[in-house]
Amino acid sequence: MRKILLSALLSAPLWVLGQGFQVNLQGQKQIGMAGAGSALALDEASVFYNPGAVTFLEKNSVSAGVNPLLFKSAFKQTGSNVTEDVKNKIAPPFEFYAVWGPKSNKWKLGLGVYTPFGGLVDWGDNWSGKYALTSLNLKAIYFQPTLSIKITDRIGIGAGFVYNHGDVNLQRAIPVNFPDGRSGKATLDGTGSGYGWNAGLYIKTLSNISFALVHKSKVITKLNGGSAEFEVPGSLTSSFPAGNTFNAELPLPATTSLGVGIPLSKSTVLAFDASWVQWHIYQDLSFDYATNTPALVDTKSARNYRDGSSFKLGINHQASEKLALRAGVGYAFSPVQDGYVTPEAPDADRYILSAGLGYTPTRHFEVNASFFFEDVKSRKQKNIETGLDGTFKTLVYAPGISLTYKW
Amino acid sequence: MKRYILNSFVAAIILFAAACKPEIETPAGSTAGQANFSKYIAVGNSLTSGFADGGLYLEGQKAAYPNLMAAKMATVGGGAFTSPFFSEEHLNGSGYISLTALVNGTPTLTPVIDKLGIRDAAKHLDKYSGEIQNLGIPGMRVDLAFDPTFTFSAANPYFERLLTDAQVGKTNYFQFIQGRNHTFFSLWLGNNDVLGYALNGAVTVPTDPTTALTDKVTFSSLYANFLNVLTAGGQKGIVGTIPDVTAVPYFNTVTVAALLNAAKAINPAAAAVYIQTGTGTIRPATAEDLIRLPFQSEGLFGKPNTAGIPYGLHPLNPIENKWVLDKDEVIKVKDYVNSYNSSIKSLATSKGLAVADTYTYFNQVKTGINIQSVGINAAFITGGAFSLDGIHLTPRGNAVIANVFIDAINAKYGSTIPTVDITQYRGVKFPDK
């Protein structure tokens, strides 16, 4: 008797993936064109954008690039007069590609290592949404060996196997207070892996207008035995046992893209991509803790994502033999429905603007640079699960550069 | 060199991005609307004073909902807001209880007895002189605010400390709040007119007027007097309804089921918990009978009397009436609360005042709500909203209630007082050992 059981002190930490975590930065030329280009055999980044186009690349090549990304998000609680910003942290999406095949043969091999999903948001330890999230660092690195084959002189198919290595570090405050008044803290840290594939079809018509159909499969990434650390007042350690672990699943969605490439002149080409991102697989997020207590129960949170989509239009202009100029615009529809927006991915529909240039000093070397900008629309939301109520507004800036060696 | 280029590249991005921060517009702008917050006064009881954890002390005073509101009013023309704070040297004020251990869910509550603001052997509290705008007095009631004998001003230590020696025993609360040249007021009073009765297990002690139940008609007419003087100069203001006293942990922590389970753990044959009701009937308790929180630390339950009959487990040794708010008493208390609230609401409406419906709000808290990612409910200790006395609010609870008032003010007067960030305020402090 006289026992007052601790009721559920918190719903366990959780994270979500949004469009905000889909990183559309996989090749400097395509980035310069807002991410369009699946129907162009532009360069070795076709390993990602369209494996079917890889076999149409003229040369063998290796390239490496990086796009330091700044995710600038701001939040204002409903009714408040204070705007809070995320800290300036630079996420490093990168890409590496190699393409090789015997000259004048019908096939090519490719390898791509790239980061199609990721997120780096740090709201600080004492912002007004700290009990939902203080910081998230999520990285998904895809490794993709690929084979691309010319069926005819104008049709190519290709496919690659995808292995994903995922890394997650999520932190949030727990609404229990130490004697000095500060809050508790939860840190979830884990790595996981998943598998999938990427296949594409490339068709170049007699009029030289090209078409692409590409499907990138979903990659269910399983996190097993991640560490779940809780910093709580000593009297609550039995409720939040030390050395706890968790299992969870990260469903990374499939994407189906339809692309068109239209040559406007000998030196100018237009590219258009429409993508359907099949986020509907993300219906709920479950956390399974190795050790449960009345205060720390396994959770299953509804996410109810719908499918997202994006439309991108880019132009590539070869200004001289050595210099190429690029620009692009795009628009993406968010998969996150009203009531499910979170500070992990303060997602909304967004505009995309980009520019890029390429410089080819010698036959073997090429430098490409890009600048990618996203304006994520302001969104006023009250989260159904957490009650976090306010307006999010996000801008994304990503300059990038890559080096290529061709032979 | 390469490193230098890389570093300047990174620095350039950060500078660029710092200059390109996203902006969030507030469409309504910043306005006091039809209200004037330049001199706000808060009239009320313990809740208004910042009383918490069974005492009045500096941390609680600073987190009192009127103080949190006044700080936000400052952005829409609000002026200074003064409160009768205990000094830093005497920051523990009247003393209070703290949670010093929590073993297997069983709390140990220990009084804090250092740095008290007690000025003499008779336990009078430190006097506070000077103008104050937080006029909340722990224990104040609507009926006793009009105390014609003025004895309450001497008997209530929290009231006594605010009065000059000449005023003690010569004034009542209704007189005390007048003549303060306010432009805006809040009035959250009346809880104790029913809570005093309920906290004593619905036993009115003839010699103790704080255990009486204020007559419904009397309540309404006295409350009207308050509104008349507070709006005499055409001032705008807000009134708060009275929470259902049965929504607080004080009455919902020691449940009949928990007692019976504890008894069965020792003696599986235990069949029922027996109580003595307000009418003197002795009967098995049901889930509708509420037991007061202090019963758990009294050590009475199961204790055999001289005849060897265990306390509370046999009709011949039932739980005494004063520990129990039995089913019929609960109905009676609820009826009074509803009556008081309908008076409060209709009087406020006739005066064109804003109403903070804390009655409705606390009922939501009882079920449990998530506000800004903080789960809040009426559970003792872990619920986050209620302090260790099971009745008064934690700083977090005060922040939540401040927003209920702010939202009602903004809705009524078209003002844009910013809301309080509740995540900056704590719940119960847990011992770190």
From TrEMBL, chain A:
GO cellular component labels: cell outer membrane
State if Membrane is listed as a keyword. yes
Q: List where in the cell it is found.
A: Cell outer membrane
Q: Does the keyword Transmembrane apply?
A: yes
Q: Superkingdom, according to UniProt?
A: Bacteria
Pfam families membership: Toluene_X
Q: Which residues form the signal peptide?
A: 1-18
Instruction: Enumerate the UniProt keywords alphabetically.
Output: Cell outer membrane, Membrane, Signal, Transmembrane, Transmembrane beta strand
Instruction: Provide the GO MF annotations for this entry.
Output: long-chain fatty acid transporting porin activity
Q: How does it sit in the membrane?
A: Multi-pass membrane protein
Please state which protein family the record places this protein in: Belongs to the OmpP1/FadL family.
- Report what the protein is called: Long-chain fatty acid transporter
Automatic annotation (TrEMBL), chain B:
For this UniProt record, give its keywords in alphabetical order, as a comma-separated list. Signal
Task: Report whether Signal shows up as a keyword of the record.
Answer: yes
- InterPro entries registered for this protein in UniProt: SGNH_hydro_sf
Q: Where is the signal peptide?
A: 1-19
A GO term, aspect molecular function:
hydrolase activity, acting on ester bonds
Q: Do you know which SUPFAM superfamilies this protein is assigned to?
A: SGNH hydrolase
Which named protein is this?
G-D-S-L family lipolytic protein
